[in-house]
Structure formats: C-alpha cells, structure tokens
Write a structure and sequence with these properties.
The protein has 210 residues and is of the alpha/beta class. The protein has 6 helices and 11 strands. The strands form 3 sheets. The protein has a 7-stranded mixed beta sheet with strand order 5-4-1-6-8-7-9, with helices on both faces. The longest helix is centred in the middle third of the chain and has 15 residues. The radius of gyration is 16 Å and the shape is globular. About 2% of the residues have low confidence.
Length: 210
C-alpha cells in the first residue's frame, strides 16, 4: 500500500453494450464487479473513492465516497480523473492519484507500486499501464498538480481524449505481463463490455481461485 497515493474507480460509463445499467454492479462470483475492483485497488492506495454519476445510493455497499463529475456533460473518463484529482487535493495529503476502470476486475495487484516506481524516474510525468503492446489510459498514476491543466483541456478546449492529454503532458508506459490461466494468456486489463465478457470473467474468476 502506498499512502501517498489516492485511488479513484471510474464507474461513469453508460454500458450500452450490456443493455444499459451499471456494469460494475453486475454479479461476478459471490460479489459484484465493483466489489472485486474496489478490493483490489483499496489494498494498493492510501485512500479510495468512486466516480459515478446519478443516484449514489446504488453504490452504498462499497462503503466508498461517491463523487459525481465536477464538470457537466458526461465528459468521459477524463472527467472522472479530474474529479478524483480535485477531491484528492482537497481532502487528502496524497501527492498522486491512481485511476482504475470499474469494469476491469483482474488488473494487477502491483499496479500502483510499479506505476509509482516508473513515475519516480520521470518526475511530473503520468505513468500509464500497458499489456501485450497496448496501453490502458484509464489505468494510470496522475500527479495532483495536473488538475488545473486537465480542467482547461476538458472545459476550455472541449477535448475528451485521454491519450491526447497524456501525450501533451508527458507519460511513461509500464508493461504488465499477461495472466496465464485456463491454458491461455489473458490480458489482466480485460474489461467486461458484453454478456459474453461477463461469462468469460466468471470462468476466469473460478480458475484463479485457490
């Protein structure tokens, strides 16, 4: 656990491919997707919050503060990251923010440690996770000092592209290994978008349990 890092779970998507509703609230094993995500990230950070719009009561079982986007218009993941940066700067003594998607229950248990190590070698840079040659911009470590620049990018420039913001401000990529399970290699950043994905996640969860 790195107590200098705050965590934000991004759960603001509209889940169109799942037929609407909240993907993080779907059942996975004996819990919900969000419970798996929260347990995995909670053990890696000093304090944790959840970014979601709408009625916060639906996430009451997580025992996490639920933060609505601080900018209007459902501006995507960057709005959630901005909300997390501003919350952490105001309410914690942390120096950076780790973000994770709320529909990705198998991300690495050493995510924050490895991102922080990479960021330490590039002060001021964003550290972003990658796997199998593909980067995952919603899994990143963000310096809290980026909040004002990110608000300008979102509000004044009306730009919602996570990768574009990272490229402008500098980033370091951290490669994570694939998961060996069920006789195949599975991306640890595999996320649940469709009913078929949920079935795959159920199977993977069973294979990973001792």
């Amino acid at each position: 656990m790195d107590r200098s890092v705050a965590g934000i779970i991004l759960a603001g998507g509209q889940s169109r491919r799942m037929g609407g509703g909240d993907k993080p609230l779907l059942s996975l094993g004996k819990a919900r997707v969000i419970d798996h995500v929260a347990a995995r990230l909670r053990s890696q950070v000093g304090t944790l919050a959840l970014n979601a719009n709408g009625d916060p009561a639906r996430f009451a079982g997580t025992d996490l503060p639920v933060l609505e986007d601080s900018v209007q218009g459902y501006a995507g993941p960057l709005a959630g990251i901005l909300t997390g940066l501003e919350w952490a700067a105001t309410n914690t003594a942390c120096r950076s923010l780790a973000s994770a998607a709320g529909d990705t229950p198998f991300f690495p248990g050493d995510l924050v440690d490895r991102l922080a190590a990479a960021a330490g070698e590039r002060p001021g840079a964003i550290a972003v996770a990658s796997s199998d040659g593909r980067w995952h911009p919603t899994f990143a470590l963000w310096p809290l000092g980026l909040a004002d620049a990110l608000r300008h990018f979102l509000v004044d420039e009306d730009n919602r592209r996570v990768s574009a913001f990272m490229e402008r401000h500098g980033f370091v990529e951290v490669e994570f290994p694939m998961i060996e399970a069920e006789g195949r290699r599975i991306d640890p950043f595999f996320n649940i978008n469709t009913p078929d994905d949920l079935a795959k996640a159920e199977s993977l969860l069973q294979s990973l349990q001792p």
